[in-house]
């Protein structure tokens, strides 16, 4: 009688495991097809894909009509239910291709720094820390 090798025994085990899995019904239904982004290799979420299709469906003519009538980039973004970043990128794309659409002024949402009050805050915190050290407490 011939002796079996380890490789032959493993292959036999794999075959019986696959047969058992088939009998149990693990392979009865095909896996759903997953769409993959060709650039990144990551799966595409259908909701993101639908949103992108909707935004890509906006014609250049419609975009430019809304852009030229609006007062701010935020109004354009709100009209198309898109982000301000997407809206600005779309406008820049058209400008780079030679379309002479107007530039909106940059809107600042942040408050300007009140340097004097911030310096006063720093000084008061330093005085508190010096007072704590003088009393024997260590600053945290």
Topology:
Layout: H1 6-24, H2 46-56, H3 60-69, H4 73-80, H5 84-96, H6 115-134
Give the H and E element order: HHHHHH
What can be said about the biggest beta sheet? none
Annotation field: number of helices: 6
Number of strands: 0
Mean pLDDT: 77
Classify the helix fraction into a percent range: 55-70%
**What fraction of residues sit in β-strands?**
under 5%
User: Could you say which overall geometry the principal axes of the C-alpha atoms support?
Assistant: flat
Summarize the structure.
The chain has 140 residues and is mainly alpha-helical.
Description:
The chain is built from six helices and no strands. Helix 4 packs across helix 5. The longest helix is centred in the C-terminal third of the chain and has 20 residues. It has a domain of 51 residues. It is an all-alpha fold.
Brief descriptors of the model:
58% helix, mainly alpha, 6 helices, 140 residues
